Amino acid sequence: MSLKPVKPVPSDIEIAQATELLPIVEVAGMLGLGEDDLDLYGKHKAKIHLDVLDRIKDEPLGHYVDVTAITPSPLGEGKTTTTVGLCQALGAHLGKKVITVVRQPSMGPTFGIKGGAAGGGYSQIVPMEDFNLHLTGDIHAVTVADDLLAAAIDARILHEYYQEDEKLFTSFCPPDKQGRRRFSPTMLRRLQKLGLEKTDPDDLTPDERRRMFRLDIDPASITWNRVIDVNDRFLRRVKIGLGPEELGLARATGYDISVASEIMAILALSRGLRDMRERLGRIVIVATVRALKMHGGGPKVVAGRPLPAEYADENIELLGKGLPNMAKTHLSLSHNPAWKGVPRNFKLPVRDIRASVGAGFLYPLCGDIRTMPGLPTRPAFYDVDLDLATGKVVGLF
Known about the structure:
alpha+beta; Rossmann fold; two-stranded antiparallel sheet
């Protein structure tokens, strides 16, 4: 479809909402995909089934162009605008077959100081408001998965606190009407990790029952944070378990923004459902010296906040020497957002090292970067509203 630019150039959302959108089924057809290859989210959004990869595995490969981190202009044109503009040049002007791939924006920065991440002007993703606000709900799903694990950890500590080994065993493997007990599929995988080659719960010895069902988590060593897709600086450090029913098991923890969750990294890196389940099963939630010294069979320790210096080298050796990821300011190649262009001869201060064992990498935190942003004095949400006459979102940029 040809663009019809006007002057003066309207706002990003006005341009997006004035664009005539093709049905997503029609767009998919241009790629050789049929409706059966899609999960539809209305007329203009869809997900592609994973089994499409098997069907096209013998097709010739194309070229992959990566637009990496760059210093944005004062008007905000950065990675997405450059990516979309490049694809428009290759496709509309040069007649090449091209697909633009960008990640779903976090709603935290959308309502904070940064604004949306759909590109800008006549080089942006449409429908822009859908793209910036929830899209297909994947970030929400990551949030719930992360918080479910966090809730499970604290609930397990609570139940282990007041239940003896035999009560735990009966709770996890209750007898049915015929008096038979069974393991759930997830329990079978844990048995395998523990080297217990048994399929009948009643065959477990008292010591094996304890190893199987009592985790003995040290609350002070938990590194798994809850997440939320909002810039909320006051959730960086919180204290939980203050209610009377929590038996005094209060502890300090914190929140990260949802897109900083290890589950988000696993979702992005997984090659399929089996791979994703295996990666989720490798997630490590605690950091203890005991785990480092006593457990075998692979990495078991998460780098703490900050990781003790005497254990740093050993942890890096366990998890691999490569550091393919880092958390740093997007405003500069350095740690200092004021150093633009290509600064040289600087030292990159690493404040902390964390590990995403399931995803398969360590990542350093550089400078004063936060995994939970905060809102500025005047956040972007002041301009976001709903046009009651049309039902459209206005004020996004």
